[in-house]
Amino acid sequence: MSTIDRAARFALLALLVTAVGACSSDSPSEPDGDDPRVVKQNPSFANDIQDVFTRNGCASSGCHGGAGGSGGLNLSGSAAYDALVGVMAVAEPVTRVIPGNATDSYLVIRLEGRQTVGNRMPLGGSPLDNIDLTNVRNWIAQGAQRN
């Protein structure tokens, strides 16, 4: 590994470490009794998956919001889908979302904490609860549709 590669990885790691609290939310890891969310077999990206990113602070300006999002990932509004599906991650040479393959998609790997570089997402926050994680996995497994 060249000195430039090491410097780039160190810079990325430093950026991620400084953003530790930016992606966290105050929501508990499991929903309360009044939570209307449910696990869906075929979740909608626009209605269900984007809501996961927004509700958990992932699409905020201090995390993956806007063109300058951490790791080059923009999860805000209309940019999120194009930044995820079929796009190679920056931290590791893994595709962010592989339609039909949730287990090997880097989004799920990071949400589950199975990555080899960096930390589980959302960074500094509670892991996604079963409803959110299952809906993300189901959306990818059903082909990661732009729906």
Report the sheet-strand fraction. under 5%
Secondary-structure element pattern, one letter each: HHHHH
In one word, what is the shape? globular
Question: Any idea how many domains?
Answer: 1
Rg calculated over all Cα atoms: 15 Å
Q: How many separate helices?
A: 5
Low-pLDDT regions: 10-30
* pLDDT averaged residue by residue: 82
Major β-sheet profile: none
Percent of residues in helices: 25-40%
**N- and C-termini, Cα separation:** 41 Å
List the topology elements:
Layout: H1 3-18, H2 45-55, H3 80-84, H4 106-112, H5 130-141
Helix pairs in contact: 2-5
How would you describe this protein?
It is a single chain. This protein has one domain (3-20, 40-141). With 147 residues, the chain is mostly helical. It starts with a helix and ends in a 6-residue tail after the last helix. It contains five helices and no strands. It has helices at 3-18, 45-55, 80-84, 106-112, 130-141. It is globular. Helix 2 (45-55) packs antiparallel against helix 5 (130-141).
